[in-house]
Amino acid sequence: MNQGRPTPRRTILTVVLAGIALLLTVCAAAAQPVLAKNSTVTVAMPVGQGPDFIIPITPGQYFSFNNTAYFIPQMYPSLYWYGKGTNPALDERDSIAKLPVFTNGGKTVTLHLKKWLWSDGYPVTCRDIQFSINLMAGTPSAWGGYVPGYWPTNISSFQIINPTECSITFNRVYNQAWITNTELAQIFPIPQHVWDRESMTGAVGNYDETTTGAQAVWNFLLKQATTLSTYTTNPLWKVVDGPYRLESYASATNEAIMTKNTRYSGPQKPRIDTLEFLPYTSDASELNALLSGSVDYGYLPFEDSSLMSEMKRHSLVTAGWSAWEFNMIFINYGNTASAGPILSQLYVRQALQHLLDQKQYSQKIFKGFANPSYGPVPATPPSAFLTNAELKNPYPYSPSAADKLLSTHGWTRNSSGTYQCQRAGLGPTECGAGIATGTPLTLHFQYPSGQPTSTQLAEVMTSTFRKAGVDLTATSLPFASLEATLAPCDKSTGDGCSWQLIYASPLVWNPSYYPSGEVNFATSGGYNVGEYDNPTNDKNVLASVEDPGLGGMHAYELYLAKDLPNLWMPEVAWQISEVSSSLKGVIPQPSTLNIQPQYWYFK
């Protein structure tokens, strides 16, 4: 407490206080931003990644950041908001609920909702949470983040105590940070009083309270959500609790226009009237739009980083956007051709990792907006999850090390310089299971089209690998086609069985923020698209979510750094952002990619 000397004359005190009040009034007026009225912000989406799904319970094929971080959260935010500046931490201020309370030895967590409204005036209640959980539990495979045995099938009971207080009891005790940052982060309140129906003409009911009813409701909602042409007119999507609502949508181009929700209950009411999410067919077209002034928040392609000074002359502010992510080349262990058995050999994966020059890629291709990474836990931003050991590369760039690994395991170069298996068999100096004598070390690499950095990366890799005796061919696909190709092998149909190596988007921790591996690397993981299957890793994954501390997490990450479920690649900045100098509140950009346009304003 501050103490001051008593003033003998009240009149003097009054004059002084009046002067201070006047000064504070003037200063406050000067500090307030002058907001533009009827303001519109145009946001450029990455090539081929316009929003194309509207329900926060998002199936795997629509599980991309354009939906889960940009588009959907503006209408249907999760129960807990993650992202404090560049820190991927829980932000209670912007969350629909207060911080969770653990009881019952950690098995039960109680949720207390704040006073939050849907745009039609109805309150957001625990029934909306229950509705969301029931839909997930009724059709768990429809949720892109689903892992058998985990959310929501590891819930023993859900109890509504009153409209704004409810509790979840889990089937056993888990790490509390994992519960909060993974399980509770997957709760999306959705309007039960509008969506709990089996047809557009039928009445709203409580169908979700039975498994068959929940499945019928989900099938109805999914059909509506995949009918893009009705997004603007469908009454289901008119009721939102986020800061914005959908105003119009072009199904042919995936361009979305949103206007502010006047009943938004969060601490910051939207100051921008309209958001336009603009997809582009190429980086060049986006750059032209940026330079012409038709984009307020866009990106500078990495290969054009030399234009950063030019951006300033166009009244644009440059800022690298680092994400809470890890990056890799996916490996298909289920490939039914020779590549499957070849890539299943750890020594082969080690040799390939030795041929990836992450430092060169980071500096030359990504122009310094990338950092080498050697495991499944993000190296940036710093966190307690990351051990110092994971910052050391176990397989540094070394063609000679790759050569030694292959030659000591039965491979020799043929007349064209490509390795082929000379000694088939299961011994320590032989090629390994499923690899016949004479099999060439031939691999196929796929990458997204329309991105010059990916093209340059493919060209460098192809040259390096071929010089080292690995016959690598590379082809590009549109992003949507590449994502569709990236699927587990179904031997009954042949779907997903032909791809070998794919470089797609980095995996960003969203909507789960605890970097454990049950989704991506557990044998039953929902996004274990390459079918990596390792019992030791499965035990480590389980420990990472059950151990009360970080011992299990550290064991998990160090094991995968060396076992190479996929090939580790640099953590590339999500983009080199270019922001109009008059648009404020955008920077710093959240590492979770959860943008908050309600905090943006034009000065």
At a glance:
With 603 residues, the protein is of the alpha+beta class.
Topology at a glance:
Layout: H1 10-31, E1 40-44, H2 65-71, E2 81-84, E3 87-91, E4 101-103, E5 108-112, H3 126-138, E6 155-162, E7 165-170, H4 176-183, H5 192-195, H6 211-225, E8 244-250, E9 255-260, E10 274-278, H7 283-292, E11 297-300, H8 308-313, E12 316-321, E13 325-331, H9 339-343, H10 346-354, H11 358-365, E14 370-371, H12 399-407, E15 411-413, E16 419-421, E17 442-448, H13 452-467, E18 471-477, H14 479-485, E19 501-503, E20 507-508, H15 535-546, H16 551-563, E21 567-569, E22 571-572, E23 575-580, E24 583-584, E25 601-602
Parallel strand pairs: 1-10, 17-18, 17-19
Antiparallel strand pairs: 2-3, 4-5, 5-7, 6-7, 8-9, 9-10, 11-23, 12-23, 13-19, 13-20, 13-21, 14-22, 15-16, 24-25
Largest β sheet strand count, sense and barrel closure: 6 strands, mixed
Q: N- to C-terminal separation?
A: 37 Å
State the CATH superfamily name of the domain at 325-572: Dipeptide-binding Protein, Domain 3
Overall structural class, as computed from helix and strand content, comes to alpha+beta
Could you explain the architecture of this structure?
By secondary structure, this protein is an alpha+beta fold. Among the domains are: 132 residues, Alpha-Beta Complex (Dipeptide-binding Protein, domain 1); 248 residues, Dipeptide-binding Protein, domain 3. The chain is 27% helix and 19% strand. The chain contains 16 helices and 25 strands. The strands form eight sheets. Strands 13, 17, 18, 19, 20 and 21 form a six-stranded mixed sheet that branches. A four-stranded mixed sheet has the order 1-10-9-8, with no helix packed on it. Helix 3 crosses helix 6. The N terminus is likely disordered.
